[in-house]
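Lab meeting prep.
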Amino acid sequence: MSARRSHIKGNCEISRRAFIGTGSGLVLGFLISPKAILGVIEARADTNGLTANAWVHITPRGAIVIQCPTSEMGQGIFTSLPLLLAEELDAEWAEVRVVQAPASRDYINPVHMQTQGVGGSRSLRGYWLPMRLAGAQARRILIANAAVRLGAPVAELSTEPGKVVHKASGRSLSYGEIAAGTLMPRELPLVTEADLKPKAQWRLIGNDVPRVEVPTKVNGTAIYGIDVILPDMLYASILRPPVATFPHPQYAADIGIRPLKIDDREALAIEGVLRVVALDHGVAVIGADYWATVLGKRALKVQWDRGHRAENYDSEAVLKEFAAIARDTARKGLVRANGKPDEAFKSAATIVSADYLSEHVYHAAMEPLNATAWVRGDEVDLWTPTQGQLWAQEVAAKAAGTTAAKVRVHTTMLGGGFGLKTEQLFNEQAVMLSKIMQKPVKVIWSREDDLKNGAYRPATAQRLEAALSADGRVTGWRVRLVADSVALRARKQQWDQLKGYDVVVMSGAASTYTIPNKHHEYIHENRGIAVGYWNANGAGFTKFASESFMDEIATRLGKDPLAFRLELLSDKRGRLVLETVADMAQWKRKRSSGRGLGIAYYDGSEWNCHCAQVAEVSVDRSSGNITVHKIWAAVDPGIAVQPAHLMQQIETSINWGVSAALRERVTIKGGQVQQSNFHDYPVPRNHEIPEIEIRLLSSVEQISGGGQIGVPAVAPAIANAVAAATGARIRRLPMLPELVKEALRA
């Protein structure tokens, strides 16, 4: 077959990749190039060479097997992505079967860092057009074949769910019947966006269907990484250094401490322990069962390398140092500016300023890191709950000393990801140990391993300043943020391309309000502690600062916080969600005694999704405890592919945000994490979850990502509500009781 490429008008290009017609059914493969994706999905820097693929297989019995290119980690993507293809194929949803796609560059997501993986709420945005075009092209081929079989002109044929019909004669052929004897055209039919269904004809998009993976989760047949069992499989636990480090196997910007001397006599005496292996960054105990490896790990006596900068890390002292750096204008960082902020501040009648701090937080995924590898010569099989299939393949190939083509990645279900499972160290460990033992090896990190040696959300200090004119206008806005870098450690190429401006840490820092002169500055401080991706990334702390500061300015000017925001906001979608959530919460109503309402807004620029929230809280002045009674949220995602699924995602991200706002923190002294499990790293229990009311809006015909949109506005809405109820302003996350009492005394 030729590799002729036919152009899709305007937005992408589609080609024949693997069209095969046989008696076993119809297989459609397709290749989408990123050319001219602009305007359909969010553009990303340097997308040359990006591809995104999806395959559909139609069996003679009418089953439609769709491969999902990304990981299912509870966000419902195993339903939402295949549904896009099924919509344009005019498939009968009950006949759809979803399978996990293998690791392959055929599955690159054009808006996800030139790789196959999931993160940043980019799955729907990346595959929205490619999967619909694939479905439309498959439908076109089915119609062409039906025309031959029925002896009817193509123009007289149409489709109904699962079949091609000729209304004039009343005849029809099911997709299975057509697939049983498909003849493939010499040239692929040209499919453009004009061939896609108009919204008025959608049967599946916008109408909820049951999530395909939920029944397996309910009946216990869903396979998570930690469930994988292979013949003659061994287990491994890894003793990591007491200092919190997390090496990154893909980049030279490594963070690790080597074991210098190992006394393994007691470990090897434990029944079931087979071998102790020194690694560059730890010590592995390998055994016949998991519990034996845990006991063996506890029995090890290890002398570690010294002199690592993280040994001196004290999180409380670091926050104070970061705050001092943020206030010190002599310390320069990397700046993104609009207008002439320096002139605005020089000519200001008043300058308002405040410092905001946020501590490290941990992912707390229910399934800790794990992977199972089986190395046989230069062939590798890797079973992993990963957010990055190609990253896992790359790391496994390097660890085994083979090529990526020899590595098969089997993506399992993920028991939570939140950015943590973009990490690859656990995959590297499993492959290295399997190669040594010449048997399948499953590496399991315990909860304590996961927490004490994590890649945490960075600790930050932010200095915010606003320039006010004599008549009360905001003429200038300045943010100076001090933190370590996620990109330097986790995506070195991105760090280099942007010359050290960390867009992950600075996510949400750019003000969306119509202030003429803005200054956003990132100051990098590398203190040796591993930091990584987290739910909503930097927006979780940047919006806490900026939206809390908006209320501080409003109070200074004697203005209502809602009215003040609307005064400075020209974005129609932003105004819509703010006005809607205010109506939902009855913003102007008389407050209940002892309760306060707080409002916050996030434009969701990373995800093309807008969210405004109002929190109702009360504060126990004697204990300092904050109770969040209710949160209202108005969200404009544009097109909601599965509205009920999206509502679930928003609700869970709000709960996540509440937990991080009120209690979650990782404290580090002498480089050692002080928390070890959920008894000292608490997350909310059911009785602590606030009532949540969500309203979805759809003001634009655009696709967005909504999995994380609930997180950023939660903390500032709560802080603003506390200030409304008590007059006390909390400028640090988490808002622990002792901080609240201190603010009440101020």
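Slide two material, second protein:
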Amino acid sequence: MEPVEVFFSYSHRDEKLRDKLALHLSMLQRQGVIKSWHDRKISAGTEWAQAIDEKLNSAGIILLLISDHFLASDYCYDIEMKQAVARHEAGEARVIPIILKPVDWSGAPFGKLQAFPKDAKPVTKWTNRDEAFLNIAQGIREAAMAMAKEVPAQQPVTPEPSLPRSAPNSVEPSPELFLPKSAANPVELEESGGQVPLESPFYVERPPIESRCYAAIAKPGALIRIKAPRQMGKSSLTIRIFDHANKQGYRAVWLQLQQAGEEPFASLDTFLQWLCRRVTVKLRLQDKVAEYWQSVSASTDKCTDYFELYLLEEINAPLALCLDEVDEIFKHPEIASDFFGLLRSWHEESKINPVWRNLRLVITHSEEVYIPLNINQSPFNVGVPIELPPLSRAQLDDLVERHGLAWSQAEIESLMAMLGGQPYLTRVALQQIASGMLTLAQFLQVAPTQAGLFASHLSRHLGNLQERQLAAAMKQVVTCDLPVQLSVVEASKLANMGLVRFQGNEVAPLCDLYRQYFREVLR
């Protein structure tokens, strides 16, 4: 595959995104996929329009960062985009449109894109920026491979009789040569990030966690507490608990509190009404919140009556209710104490009231419970506690094999050391390596840098460390080659963020990724 030239067209108002994508373009250049890349930043003293025209016409791949600003720009749309589309349709270049958000193709200003090349590959998923940038990089790699395949291969040259016997001249490699070694059958990869789908072959069980949860959800009045840092697999486990419950004939409702916004947390009364309405909608029942809220009783009593006298009676079946990321409630102490006391009272009521035995609660959270709760009113010291550990060495070995990678033990150990078995990081890395985006050696080299796959992930952690005033504690951990002892609060908070692991009363970085990155940026 010959390296290709890339031109990047964007509105000057989208330069922040341009700068982030530039890191991935530079990585592809170092990997030999891109020969060079150019954009609208032209050196001083150069005729700007002429330079843009030359770079756009010489590029084999043209990226269009399409936004409202891009479409509103006469130059971006009327000149650069039309010129790019014309070269694409003539077979002279490949256009990759990058759509910054899902669009209504029929409405203005997106109606301008009706004639866009059908075989161009847009990127519309921007809920996960890491994933979007990787999709773009993969689109560039695939386009470069396709262009290489279209170039006629050189014919083998017969060696002169007087010369030593030698191999024929090399021919253009087919794209398959850049794919990783796989098992007997090709592996169909899937998008990384987010929940691992139920039918996915890449979900790795961590015994005995799943079996404990399946047994617990079947018990009357169950309460399952799943605690783990972000991106450790809480949601993937929960959907499997729900699937098990559905197969038993239960009704299931999942409320993601991080997506609730700020309005429901204005007061306890507002939050409990929001809770009742969301569960009602999910169960496809008639909203009777206003009717029950006419009472002069306390808000917690109104909510209890709504569940007991209406919802649970109406469905007449076990209800599995998951409250995902209840950390959001920790931020509102004026709500938290009464609400968590309410959950505890429902759990206790199930021991004597047949109606409440049908409620099965699943609570997930990342943080420790630092808010003051009466020990007899807390739901965090009853029920079945579940903590999700990183993947073990054997589980990583299994996951590598599922991705169709024939790795040596040393290669598996190197990935384990870099990522520490962190499920999200491991899954993203294996998906990219198995798809041919980069090799293991390339991944290990750039992973702990801003040019690696996890630039946004690492930046988010850095911001959280600074916001929570934990940067100095993390610096102490990563600059020492041995485990260190921190205050209990600092050590617990870093562990809750998924950055460190306990070794006795001391902590060490979870993996080399965090040690190398934070040692560099915090020095």
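Talking points for slide two:
The two ends are 40 Å apart (CA to CA).
Residues 151-186 have pLDDT under 50 and may be disordered.
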